[in-house]
Design goal:
This protein has five helices and no strands. With 89 residues, it is mainly α.
Length: 89
């Protein structure tokens, strides 16, 4: 079963907004696990989720940056190494 299929199911909103005891949402979990595909699918369904802070005041985007995941691109990503911040080589 794909993440995209699950996101199309009725009643999904309550699961997207659920927080665990650390204040993490599904966005935090996808960021912590470096799962860029799930993160992007979630963005299409609840883009506000990227700004939610956990109990430790970390947003999912902060977790991506500090985890240094190559799955999300960035300075450690060989595909982005030849471009500057404007996407030009």
């Amino acid at each position: 079963m794909s993440s995209a299929f699950l996101c199309e199911q009725p009643g999904l909103e309550s699961y997207l907004r659920h927080r665990n005891q650390l204040g993490h949402t599904v966005f935090h979990q996808a960021a912590r696990r470096s799962n860029a595909d799930v993160f992007c699918i979630l963005m299409r369904h609840w883009h506000e989720g990227v700004d939610i802070e956990s109990s430790g005041q970390d947003t999912p985007l902060v977790l991506i940056i500090f985890n240094g995941s190559p799955n999300f691109g960035g300075e450690n990503d060989p595909a982005s190494a030849s471009t500057d911040a404007r996407g030009q080589g």
